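Q: Start with the shorter request: fold the first protein.
A: Done. Sequence, then structure:
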Amino acid sequence: MRAVGGFDASLPCWQEYELHLRLALQRWRTIRHLTIFLCTYYVVSGSISSHQVRMFTTRAAVLRRFAEEELGVEGFTGGRRDAIATEIMGCARILIRCGRDDDAVGAYAFARSLSPATPYPAKWPLRLAVRLVGPVRAEWARTWLTRRLGSR
């Protein structure tokens, strides 16, 4: 943990997530994946973690910073770019639902620049709509249709 700089106290949330990204990049060959859960997270209303806008704005920023800092690192494969782009697009979707369209468009644009071939993380009709009208209008239409038609 000392070698990668420990926790980033400047982040309002996602400190452990950001630390895990740095650890994985530095020590990825020695990290073993366990198939069992070792801890459980609880979100308490009124806490920082219950504030979706802050959570997903910070998560997108952490992923963006990670991608920008590590793009030159050998081994930053297309698969890793795709995975980061998909996560950032997922954050953008939630930010759109929270009314943070500008933040969402910035996150989406960065994800597209990072990995242009990565599909929008949704089923094909929404992916097509995103290509035609952009992520904000497509998500608005999805929300409107879902409310109008119900979840069938």
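Q: Next, the second protein, separately.
A: Sequence, then structure:
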Amino acid sequence: MSILQRRVHTIENTDKTLNKINHKFLRSHLVKIRRMAGEDESIYERVARLEDEVASLRNEVDVLKGTMRNKIVRYEHKLIKKGKDIQSIID
């Protein structure tokens, strides 16, 4: 498998990986919420805070996706300059 194919495979699986990470993250924190029932914070406040954390993580992942996309574009340009015939994987 070439480097470019591995990078494409990585990008395609990013969303699946994020969904798994979010599911594990939320599940682990929801278990903690049940244990904290007697504390000052209500479950709604805790869920709202967790949703904010997930949103910030999604933003970070979007930045990483953009960075990865830019690296792939630069790599494709390098190949084109060398005279190699390639198909772009970027829309």
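Q: Describe the second briefly.
A: The chain has one domain: 3-81. The chain is about 80% helix and 0% strand.
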